[in-house]
Task: structure prediction
Amino acid sequence: MSSSDEMTLKTPKILIPEVKIQHRLDELAQEINHDYQGQSVTAICILKGSFIFFADMIRKLDLPVTCEFFGVSSYGNRTVSSGEVKVTLDINEPLENRHIILFEDIVDSGLTLSYLQNLFRTRKPASIRTCALLMKPESLKTHVDVDYIGFKLGNEFVVGYGMDYAGKYRNLPFIGYFEHDH
Ligand code: IMP
Ligand code: MG
Result:
Protein backbone atom coordinates (compact mmCIF):
# COMPACT_ATOMS: atom_id res chain seq x y z
CA MET A 1 0.00 0.00 0.00
CA SER A 2 1.41 3.41 -0.94
CA SER A 3 1.70 6.15 1.64
CA SER A 4 -1.06 8.17 -0.04
CA ASP A 5 -3.44 5.21 0.29
CA GLU A 6 -2.64 5.01 3.97
CA MET A 7 -3.55 8.70 4.39
CA THR A 8 -7.15 7.98 3.42
CA LEU A 9 -7.46 5.54 6.30
CA LYS A 10 -6.36 7.97 8.94
CA THR A 11 -8.22 10.52 11.01
CA PRO A 12 -6.67 13.95 10.55
CA LYS A 13 -5.22 15.77 13.53
CA ILE A 14 -6.25 19.36 14.20
CA LEU A 15 -3.79 21.91 12.81
CA ILE A 16 -5.99 25.01 13.01
CA PRO A 17 -9.14 24.80 15.13
CA GLU A 18 -12.46 26.45 14.16
CA VAL A 19 -12.17 29.36 16.59
CA LYS A 20 -8.73 30.28 15.33
CA ILE A 21 -9.95 30.21 11.71
CA GLN A 22 -12.87 32.50 12.52
CA HIS A 23 -10.69 34.91 14.47
CA ARG A 24 -8.26 35.23 11.56
CA LEU A 25 -11.13 35.63 9.07
CA ASP A 26 -12.47 38.51 11.15
CA GLU A 27 -9.08 40.23 10.80
CA LEU A 28 -8.91 39.61 7.03
CA ALA A 29 -12.46 40.90 6.53
CA GLN A 30 -11.63 44.01 8.53
CA GLU A 31 -8.69 44.69 6.18
CA ILE A 32 -10.84 44.13 3.08
CA ASN A 33 -13.67 46.29 4.43
CA HIS A 34 -11.16 49.05 5.05
CA ASP A 35 -9.42 48.73 1.64
CA TYR A 36 -12.65 48.72 -0.40
CA GLN A 37 -14.59 51.35 1.59
CA GLY A 38 -17.24 52.97 -0.63
CA GLN A 39 -16.80 50.44 -3.46
CA SER A 40 -18.74 47.46 -4.72
CA VAL A 41 -16.83 44.22 -5.09
CA THR A 42 -17.27 41.00 -7.03
CA ALA A 43 -16.21 38.14 -4.79
CA ILE A 44 -15.17 35.07 -6.77
CA CYS A 45 -15.20 31.68 -5.10
CA ILE A 46 -12.69 29.25 -6.61
CA LEU A 47 -14.45 25.89 -6.39
CA LYS A 48 -14.40 23.44 -4.92
CA GLY A 49 -11.90 23.95 -2.11
CA SER A 50 -12.88 27.51 -1.20
CA PHE A 51 -16.61 27.11 -0.70
CA ILE A 52 -16.62 27.12 3.10
CA PHE A 53 -13.95 29.83 3.39
CA PHE A 54 -15.89 31.94 0.87
CA ALA A 55 -19.23 31.48 2.66
CA ASP A 56 -17.67 32.56 5.96
CA MET A 57 -15.75 35.50 4.46
CA ILE A 58 -18.58 37.12 2.46
CA ARG A 59 -20.74 37.20 5.60
CA LYS A 60 -18.05 39.25 7.31
CA LEU A 61 -17.83 41.80 4.48
CA ASP A 62 -19.59 45.07 5.12
CA LEU A 63 -19.64 46.10 1.42
CA PRO A 64 -21.99 45.73 -1.56
CA VAL A 65 -20.89 42.26 -2.72
CA THR A 66 -21.76 40.26 -5.82
CA CYS A 67 -20.87 36.58 -5.59
CA GLU A 68 -19.56 34.53 -8.48
CA PHE A 69 -18.37 30.94 -8.67
CA PHE A 70 -15.57 29.60 -10.81
CA GLY A 71 -14.69 25.93 -10.92
CA VAL A 72 -11.24 24.48 -11.44
CA SER A 73 -9.95 21.01 -11.05
CA SER A 74 -6.40 19.78 -11.04
CA TYR A 75 -5.91 16.48 -12.77
CA GLY A 76 -6.06 13.30 -10.72
CA ASN A 77 -5.82 12.80 -6.97
CA ARG A 78 -2.18 13.70 -6.60
CA THR A 79 -1.06 15.70 -3.60
CA VAL A 80 1.32 17.68 -5.82
CA SER A 81 -0.03 20.25 -8.25
CA SER A 82 0.85 19.91 -11.91
CA GLY A 83 -0.20 23.47 -12.67
CA GLU A 84 -2.46 22.06 -15.37
CA VAL A 85 -5.85 23.52 -14.65
CA LYS A 86 -9.15 22.30 -16.02
CA VAL A 87 -12.01 24.82 -15.91
CA THR A 88 -15.15 23.04 -14.73
CA LEU A 89 -17.43 26.06 -14.26
CA ASP A 90 -17.13 29.51 -15.81
CA ILE A 91 -18.65 32.87 -14.85
CA ASN A 92 -21.19 34.13 -17.34
CA GLU A 93 -21.36 37.69 -16.01
CA PRO A 94 -19.05 40.33 -17.48
CA LEU A 95 -16.26 41.29 -15.07
CA GLU A 96 -15.23 44.39 -16.98
CA ASN A 97 -14.65 47.39 -14.70
CA ARG A 98 -15.50 45.35 -11.60
CA HIS A 99 -13.29 45.23 -8.51
CA ILE A 100 -12.78 41.51 -8.22
CA ILE A 101 -11.42 39.52 -5.31
CA LEU A 102 -10.47 35.89 -5.86
CA PHE A 103 -11.02 33.65 -2.84
CA GLU A 104 -8.72 30.64 -2.97
CA ASP A 105 -8.34 27.94 -0.34
CA ILE A 106 -4.62 27.34 -0.61
CA VAL A 107 -1.64 28.53 -2.60
CA ASP A 108 0.89 25.72 -2.86
CA SER A 109 3.12 25.91 -5.97
CA GLY A 110 1.19 29.05 -6.98
CA LEU A 111 0.67 27.65 -10.49
CA THR A 112 -3.12 27.42 -10.20
CA LEU A 113 -3.48 30.94 -8.85
CA SER A 114 -1.09 32.37 -11.41
CA TYR A 115 -3.14 30.73 -14.18
CA LEU A 116 -6.36 32.14 -12.69
CA GLN A 117 -5.03 35.66 -12.27
CA ASN A 118 -3.91 35.73 -15.92
CA LEU A 119 -7.26 34.37 -17.04
CA PHE A 120 -9.25 36.98 -15.07
CA ARG A 121 -7.00 39.82 -16.26
CA THR A 122 -8.16 39.13 -19.82
CA ARG A 123 -11.70 40.05 -18.69
CA LYS A 124 -10.57 43.62 -17.96
CA PRO A 125 -11.64 44.08 -14.33
CA ALA A 126 -11.03 47.50 -12.73
CA SER A 127 -8.84 45.72 -10.17
CA ILE A 128 -7.97 42.21 -9.12
CA ARG A 129 -6.85 41.01 -5.72
CA THR A 130 -6.52 37.61 -4.14
CA CYS A 131 -7.46 36.43 -0.67
CA ALA A 132 -6.06 33.01 0.22
CA LEU A 133 -6.90 31.14 3.39
CA LEU A 134 -3.58 29.28 3.37
CA MET A 135 -0.21 29.63 1.73
CA LYS A 136 2.84 27.37 1.65
CA PRO A 137 5.66 29.86 0.91
CA GLU A 138 8.36 27.17 0.69
CA SER A 139 6.46 25.36 -2.07
CA LEU A 140 6.08 28.32 -4.43
CA LYS A 141 7.31 27.63 -7.95
CA THR A 142 6.30 30.93 -9.50
CA HIS A 143 5.90 34.53 -8.44
CA VAL A 144 2.31 35.20 -7.51
CA ASP A 145 0.69 38.17 -5.76
CA VAL A 146 -1.49 37.28 -2.81
CA ASP A 147 -2.95 40.35 -1.14
CA TYR A 148 -4.65 38.78 1.88
CA ILE A 149 -3.28 35.62 3.51
CA GLY A 150 -4.97 33.78 6.36
CA PHE A 151 -2.19 31.50 7.55
CA LYS A 152 1.23 30.48 6.26
CA LEU A 153 2.09 26.80 6.48
CA GLY A 154 5.09 24.56 5.96
CA ASN A 155 4.89 21.77 3.41
CA GLU A 156 2.28 19.65 5.20
CA PHE A 157 -0.74 18.48 3.23
CA VAL A 158 -3.92 19.73 4.86
CA VAL A 159 -7.57 18.79 4.64
CA GLY A 160 -10.88 20.00 6.05
CA TYR A 161 -12.75 23.31 6.07
CA GLY A 162 -13.50 22.74 2.35
CA MET A 163 -10.19 21.15 1.37
CA ASP A 164 -9.98 17.54 0.29
CA TYR A 165 -7.76 14.59 -0.18
CA ALA A 166 -9.12 12.42 -3.04
CA GLY A 167 -12.51 14.11 -2.65
CA LYS A 168 -12.84 13.44 1.08
CA TYR A 169 -12.60 15.40 4.35
CA ARG A 170 -14.09 18.69 3.00
CA ASN A 171 -16.75 18.56 5.72
CA LEU A 172 -14.35 18.73 8.67
CA PRO A 173 -14.94 22.00 10.56
CA PHE A 174 -11.22 22.45 11.29
CA ILE A 175 -8.03 22.44 9.19
CA GLY A 176 -6.35 19.09 9.72
CA TYR A 177 -3.22 17.22 8.74
CA PHE A 178 -2.08 13.62 8.64
CA GLU A 179 0.52 12.40 11.03
CA HIS A 180 3.02 10.11 9.34
CA ASP A 181 4.51 7.04 10.98
CA HIS A 182 8.30 7.13 11.16
P1 IMP B 1 -0.96 24.99 -6.59
O1 IMP B 1 -1.30 25.12 -8.05
O2 IMP B 1 0.21 24.07 -6.38
O3 IMP B 1 -0.75 26.31 -5.90
O4 IMP B 1 -2.14 24.22 -5.91
C1 IMP B 1 -3.32 24.83 -5.67
C2 IMP B 1 -4.44 23.86 -5.43
O5 IMP B 1 -3.99 22.56 -5.03
C3 IMP B 1 -5.26 24.38 -4.28
O6 IMP B 1 -6.25 25.26 -4.75
C4 IMP B 1 -5.80 23.13 -3.68
O7 IMP B 1 -7.01 22.78 -4.31
C5 IMP B 1 -4.76 22.08 -3.95
N1 IMP B 1 -3.89 21.90 -2.78
C6 IMP B 1 -2.61 22.30 -2.64
N2 IMP B 1 -2.13 21.97 -1.43
C7 IMP B 1 -3.15 21.35 -0.80
C8 IMP B 1 -3.29 20.79 0.52
O8 IMP B 1 -2.40 20.78 1.37
N3 IMP B 1 -4.51 20.25 0.80
C9 IMP B 1 -5.54 20.23 -0.08
N4 IMP B 1 -5.45 20.75 -1.30
C10 IMP B 1 -4.27 21.30 -1.66
MG1 MG C 1 -8.31 24.98 -4.73
Remarks:
- DSSP finds four helices and nine strands in the chain.
- Residues 18-35 form the longest helix (18 residues).
- The first strand starts at residue 13 and ends at 16.
